Fold:
Amino acid sequence: MRIGNSHSVEVQFRKDKQLGSFTSPWILRYGLAYRTDTYMPKRPEVFVQENSQLFLDAFEEGRLKRSKLRNVYLTLPIEFQFYLNPKYTEYDGKQYLDVRKKMWKIGAGAYAGINTRSIVKVKYYNENDNFKKYDYTLDDGVNAFLFGGKFSLGYGGVNLFIKKDFTPIFNNKANLPNKNGIQIGIEIANIDF
Structure:
């Protein structure tokens, strides 16, 4: 795959729950997430599905502009976070952990999900230099279920994370050299309701 061009985006709707007393530095996060992973093979290769097998092959229908495989998942993430330097606020004579203040935190969690669709998209220029595109839904080659783990380190509202899919993304009907995924990323936006 093309490093730097393959990517993942996730939107979570989650609840944060403090564990223990009002001064406890432990937070439990859980919810529902929409995740989309995009894999772009090195040019001039494209994903091909033939006889229930998924593989990469050289593109020969013209000049390839872009080729990608997009997997879409619904996941259930759960994560425990621990504030390393907890800060408190006082209200009515009692102290409370103030999660709106900037603090260092570490987290560990897991996620499980189902694949809702897998689509191959190809854009190219034909022999007459006319722009063309096609896409199709994969029937085989991608696992229907996903399970993985997450480790994070953050400060304030920004979290750096590493996610490792424990189940392979691609199943035994895929002729690909690497079937497992690892993600390194940043959580950049949180909206409180």
Summary: DSSP finds no helices and 13 strands in the chain. The mean pLDDT is 90. The longest strand covers residues 104-125. The CA atoms of residues 47 and 130 lie 22 Å apart.
